[in-house]
Write a structure and sequence with these properties.
This protein is mainly beta and 147 residues long. Helices cover 14% and strands 46% of the residues. Strand 5 and strand 6 (91-106) form a beta hairpin.
Length: 147
């Protein structure tokens, strides 16, 4: 079974960073992806989907240092749904992308000055290879994959 998410979109705001009691950091940020299509009348429709992304520990620290609102990012992770009860006993659910990797592809004006100051290495989408490093098949212990 596979639970894998790949997103390419723009960050909606600067990441929110929290430090837990055990010292672990967690970053939360949103990523907007756009999709365009023609409806039955032939009119062009643009649709934006917002994704909640969570990054833990080292990834959270990296997000805190380098992510800013409006940056174009590539995010890899998995879907995770949390369930809790509100104060009235109603079940609530939240589905998030738990990131295990992100890469800044480029930045808008808001983030480009920050990138230059921190040496973040912004890459323009037109020249970026959107293929993260994939482990060599010889490194895998799962030789019985069905594909």
């Amino acid at each position: 079974m596979v639970n894998r998410v790949t997103l390419i979109g723009n960050t909606g705001k600067d990441p929110e960073i929290r430090t837990l009691e055990n010292g672990a950091k967690v970053a939360r940020f949103s990523v907007a992806t756009d999709e365009g299509y023609k409806d039955t009348s032939g009119n062009w429709v643009d649709r934006t989907e917002w994704h909640d992304v969570v990054g833990w520990r080292g990834l959270a620290e990296r997000a805190e240092r380098s992510l800013k609102k409006g940056m174009l990012v590539y995010v890899e992770g998995k879907l995770s749904t949390r369930k809790w009860q509100d104060q009235d006993g109603n079940d609530k659910y939240r589905t998030e992308v738990v990131a295990n990797y992100f890469r800044i592809l480029n930045s808008r004006e808001a983030g480009s000055e920050h990138e230059n100051k921190t040496g973040g290495g912004a890459v323009h989408a037109a020249s970026a290879a959107i293929a993260p490093s994939v482990p060599d098949a010889s490194d895998s212990e799962d030789d019985d994959l069905p594909f």
